[in-house]
Design brief:
mainly alpha, about 60 residues
Length: about 60
């Protein structure tokens, strides 16, 4: 049985990006009271990178 990341990579990628953006903005707002736009960009890039690597590794392992 394939994982969600392999079966639906676009949905998985979108979910990862949204989660990372929400966490980055939340942490920036609560702890640092700083640049929300920068935190959103950082979260988007981090989420996209995480999703791409996760899908690639799972496909390579045949999961």
């Amino acid at each position: 049985m394939a994982s969600f990341a392999v079966e639906r990579p676009w949905a998985y990628g979108g979910l990862c990006v949204l989660l990372w953006v929400a966490l980055s903005v939340g942490i920036e707002t609560v702890l640092f009271e700083g640049a929300v736009v920068g935190a959103a960009l950082t979260g988007a890039v981090g989420g996209l990178a995480f999703a791409v690597v996760t899908v690639a590794v799972r496909r390579a392992r045949g999961q």
